[in-house]
From TrEMBL:
This is Fis family transcriptional regulator. Residues 278-407, 643-798 form the SSD domain. Its main location: membrane. It comes from the Bacteria. The keyword Cell membrane applies. InterPro entries: MMPL_dom (IPR004869), Mycobact_MmpL (IPR050545), SSD (IPR000731). GO terms for cellular component: plasma membrane. It is a multi-pass membrane protein. Keywords: Cell membrane, Membrane, Transmembrane, Transmembrane helix. SUPFAM superfamilies: Multidrug efflux transporter AcrB transmembrane domain. It is found in: Cell membrane. The keyword Transmembrane applies. The chain crosses the membrane at residues 259-275, 282-301, 313-333, 354-372, 384-406, 438-458, 648-666, 673-693, 747-767, 773-796.
Length: 806
């Protein structure tokens, strides 16, 4: 106990030091915050799927290699519903939309639709590869030849038009690389000077992939263009992985701005009602504003992007830092009404609560820091910067707030006024102390039963990662994706790379036959959950070419079985003017790409599919080629697997660190371990809520466990810190509980209200994932409050027996 007394005295001395040098302290902090704040404009945002993986992750490396070779697989898909996609008037409007998209969209490489669908055929002299509608005919009757060519091309059905010909699509391919360099400057392509005496060799700068901001611009511009064409017989549905990523960012930005605004309003109301002072509202908000500014600036300095995961951080810090400020101010204002002396009251408040505030900040930071070991980059970033933010907030609460108090003119309330303000809360806390110490066995028995029930429910939790259902049912992106999955057999793609390991390995008929076997197998996959709607590969181009060079006869829609003939036909196709072959093979004809069209479903549903495909293709190409599954959909599946594993590790680390801190604070291993039981309750009860209301463990809700533990233990730390002091002083558990609740119990109640309100603003989020996160975290805080007010005193009552020795 001596070390705690010594520490409290040091906090009192530190308070006097800050009080004496308050103006210098404020100036130094203002300069520090201003210096960090200059970096805020450099903060970037990233909602990309690959951004969830560290750049050194093997799956991320493989995906980057895929993009470097074949281009970006994330596309925008414009689906259009009409009565007949081959109607001349419809095609004219489709052509106009197609051309507008080509002309007006930035950062794109290609726009494909029925208008420019590949039409491969042969005449007596050559191979011809041209657009399906080079020029739209003048009459409906003249469309029939092109229509029949389209219907006879097996590639186009469920790719560019639906089976019933009432839906068609425009597929927009985006750039692989950004148009801007690392400093944000537009990259200007240097043209070669053919008259120069000597070529100028300039080392190429490292290319950056298409940025999140550029993707958002494409999506927003596409939304604006297609809106102008929307009509009764021209219903437009905009989807695709690029669109969903862009829409998530739009919702995230809107939600984050809304969260902060609503949270500030709610916290101002709570603080005003609690303290009835301007200083009681302004001081916590100043501390919070500086904390968030410095934390986000640190992210900008380290080039760490703001993500779907880290968007919860400002709201979290706002609630947590305000809670810490409340503990200090509550004690300060109460003592000020007695002493009428700011310096003495600040000294008392720092000595009384300084150590507890440090310990609660450390436990909260520990719970968050456990995420820093995550295999997912944004989750690891949350662990690093949210925990850093909590510690930065601790600095402002224990340095800036005392300095501001010393510099402000704060009018003290009289003791009578203070007593009147707390009469109702005191009555409630007094009743709680009587119940918790009067019926300890009943409370523990009921709590034990509830824990058993919660464990049973916890075993029924389900995992899920389905970003589409985060949107409301009538959200445009969700509706579009569901319609396209149904009518056009898939809105996203999986990618497969077959590497023969040798130059011109794809000229081998046996290898191409294996690729054909692989696509036949893939196209046969149909389950109640997922299906393959279409595959695209080199063999499709080759079969088209072979048919065209054999008088367009259907029986020649096959793979030639002669290596030289294959090489010759592919050479002819390359020289026909089409660059489509680049989408499916590398320059040395050693690697082939298979694109698999599939529906947008829960990423975890694809785990079995991906494993099944990998095993089947490994067997098919055993000894002759390697098979790599990649693409955004594959990454999503991998991300969820890593998320589940990382969350389990985070929980273990968080629980271990917090337990160690509790033991150190209390000074007794047995009591320290037992005091952790109330802190497990919130996590267990959350699992019950999730099962009852069918909330899955997704990317957000999996974060709650460690966060809830870090927050829940804060109240326990404050309670045990003050209980320890009073129990040793009076050798009476009942009195110690009563004095603890009547003193720090007020601050615990208010901070719990502030924290709960802080997270309940997420109920106004547009995405259900954030709604669930908010209500579950707020519930965890409320359950933790009840556990600390009832279960902790009951445990202390049965264990200590007024011996005055823990």
């Amino acid at each position: 106990m001596n070390w705690r007394h010594r520490t409290e005295r040091k906090f009192e001395s530190f308070s006097d030091l800050i009080f004496t040098h308050s103006k210098k302290t404020i100036l130094a902090i203002l300069l520090l915050v201003a210096a960090f704040g200059t970096q805020l404009p450099n903060l970037t945002m990233d909602t990309s799927t690959e951004g969830f993986l560290h750049k050194t992750d093997s799956m991320r490396v493989a995906y980057d290699e895929f993009r470097d070779q074949f281009g970006r697989d994330e596309k925008l898909l414009v689906a259009i519903k009409t009565e007949n996609v081959f109607d001349l008037n419809f095609l004219k409007k489709l052509e106009k939309l197609h051309k507008n998209l080509e002309a007006e969209l930035p950062y794109i490489t290609d726009v494909n639709s029925l208008i420019n669908a590949r039409n491969t055929y042969g005449d007596e002299e050559s191979l011809i590869v041209e657009d399906l509608f080079e020029v739209l005919p003048d009459s409906q009757q003249q469309i029939e030849p092109q229509k029949q060519r389209a219907l006879n091309n097996p590639l186009l059905e469920n790719l560019l038009f639906s089976e019933d010909q009432t839906f068609t699509t425009i597929v927009i391919d985006t750039q692989t690389y950004s148009s801007f360099d690392a400093e944000g400057k537009l990259i200007v392509e240097q043209e070669e000077d053919e008259f120069a005496d000597e070529p100028i060799n300039i080392a190429p700068a490292a290319k950056l992939y298409l940025s999140d901001a550029e993707n958002t611009v494409i999506v927003q511009k596409t939304q604006a263009i297609v809106k102008e064409f929307e009509a009764d017989n021209f219903e437009i549905y905009l989807t695709g992985s690029a669109v969903i990523a862009g829409t998530l960012k739009q919702s995230m930005m809107a939600d984050t701005k809304s969260f902060i605004t609503k949270m500030i309003v709610m916290i101002v109301i709570v603080l005003a009602l609690l303290f009835k002072r301007v200083s009681g509202v302004l001081l916590p908000l100043i501390s919070v504003a500086f904390t968030i500014s410095v934390t986000l600036s640190m992210m900008a300095i380290t080039s760490t992007p703001f993500t779907i995961v880290t968007q919860i951080m400002p709201s979290f810090l706002l609630a947590v830092i305000t809670g810490g400020a409340i503990h200090l101010l509550a004690i300060f204002y109460k003592d000020l009404s007695k002493t009428q002396d700011r310096k003495a009251s600040l000294r008392y408040a720092m000595g009384h609560s300084g150590l507890a505030i440090v310990m609660t900040s450390l436990t909260t930071a520990a719970g968050l820091w456990s995420f820093s070991f995550s295999e997912l980059s944004p989750v690891a970033d949350l662990g690093v910067f949210a925990s850093s933010g909590v510690l930065i907030g601790l600095l402002f609460n224990l340095v800036l707030l005392p300095a501001l108090i010393a510099s402000m003119s704060i009018k003290p309330h009289t003791a009578k006024e203070d007593a009147q303000e707390h009469t109702q809360m005191d009555k409630m806390l007094l009743s709680i102390s009587r119940i918790s110490t009067g019926y300890p066995k009943a409370i523990i028995a009921i709590s034990g039963l509830m824990i058993v029930v919660a464990i049973v429910f916890a075993s029924q939790l389900r995992f899920s990662h389905y970003p589409l259902v985060w949107f409301p049912e009538d959200h445009a992106s969700r509706v579009a994706t569901e319609v396209v999955d149904d009518k056009l057999k898939g809105s996203i793609t999986l990618e497969i790379v077959i590497d023969t390991g040798k130059e011109n390995g794809l000229y081998d008929p046996a290898m191409l036959n294996k690729i054909q076997n692989a696509t036949d197998y893939l196209n046969s996959i149909q389950t109640g959950t997922y299906f393959v709607g279409k595959t695209l590969s080199l063999v499709d181009v080759l079969k088209e070419t072979n048919r065209a060079l054999n008088e367009n006869q259907a029986e020649f829609y096959s793979i030639p079985q002669d290596k030289d003939l294959i090489a010759q036909e592919l050479f002819l196709f390359e020289n026909s003017g089409s660059d489509d072959l680049e989408d499916f093979v590398d320059a040395s004809f050693s690697k082939a790409r298979i694109t698999v069209k599939a529906p947008y479903i829960d990423a975890l549903e694809y785990n079995g599919f991906i494993m099944q495909v990998q095993q089947q293709l490994d067997q098919e190409f055993k000894g002759v080629a390697t098979v790599q599954l990649t693409g955004i959909t594959t990454l999503l599946s991998v991300i969820m697997e890593k998320s589940i594993h990382s969350s389990a590790v985070s929980y273990v680390i968080a629980f271990g660190l917090v337990t160690i801190m509790m033991v150190l604070l209390i000074g007794n291993i047995k009591i320290g371990l037992i005091s952790m039981i109330p802190n497990i309750l919130p996590i267990l009860f959350l699992s019950t809520i999730m099962v009852v209301f069918d909330m899955p463990l997704d990317m957000f809700t999996m974060l709650i466990g460690a966060i809830a533990l870090g927050l829940a233990v804060d109240d326990t730390v404050h309670f045990m810190h003050n209980f320890r002091r009073y129990e040793l002083e009076h050798n009476d558990v009942d009195k110690a509980v009563r004095l603890t609740l009547m003193g720090t119990g007020r601050a615990i109640t208010v901070t719990s209200i502030v924290l709960s309100v802080g997270f309940l603003v997420l109920l106004f989020a547009s995405m259900s994932s954030m709604f669930n996160f908010g209500i579950l975290t707020a519930s965890a805080i409320f359950i933790a409050l009840l556990a600390d007010f009832f279960l902790v005193p009951a445990i202390m009552k049965l264990m200590i027996h007024n011996k005055g020795d823990l």
